[in-house]
């Protein structure tokens, strides 16, 4: 399926959801937030759980968490950017991380438990910092668009 057709299908799925615009937009925001967090095996479950806890749309959260698939070709750049932000925030004095060397890509290094502290912690902190404003913008944008869509649909049914 083409990328534009896939994106259009996801938009149709969100617009066809029943519920108040606030709940759907909240689900979208939660899904976008967890879509940018590097917890690959847990992001859908976390998005659904938090959406349910906040009384948002669970279906909208599940749909939105898959929207990060659009940036898959750019994922290494996004992850590096999130890592840089987290590294900068956690380092004292603030500094950006050193350039990656080819030795950093060796699988034995990535599978060692200490890698979580040296790479995972800055990556998680940076991803939360990057994902939060995106989730807030997603909430307000989705709410405005959903309210307009539902108002148009209501007028079309009456007219």
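^ structure tokens above, recovered residues below v
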């Amino acid at each position: 399926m083409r990328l534009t057709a896939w994106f259009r299908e996801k938009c149709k799925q969100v617009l066809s959801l029943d519920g108040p615009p606030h709940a759907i937009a909240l689900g979208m925001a939660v899904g976008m937030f967890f879509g940018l967090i590097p917890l690959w095996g847990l992001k859908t479950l976390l998005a659904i759980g938090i959406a349910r806890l906040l009384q948002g749309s669970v279906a909208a959260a599940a749909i939105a968490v898959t929207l990060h698939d659009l940036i898959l070709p750019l994922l290494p750049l996004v992850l590096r950017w999130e890592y840089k932000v987290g590294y900068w925030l956690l380092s004292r004095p603030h500094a950006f991380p050193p350039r990656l060397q080819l030795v950093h890509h060796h699988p034995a290094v990535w599978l060692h438990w200490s890698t979580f502290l040296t790479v995972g912690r800055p990556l998680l902190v940076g991803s939360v910092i990057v994902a939060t404003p995106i989730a807030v913008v997603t909430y307000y944008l989705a709410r405005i668009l959903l309210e307009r869509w539902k108002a148009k649909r209501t007028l079309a049914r009456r007219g």
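The mean pLDDT is 85.
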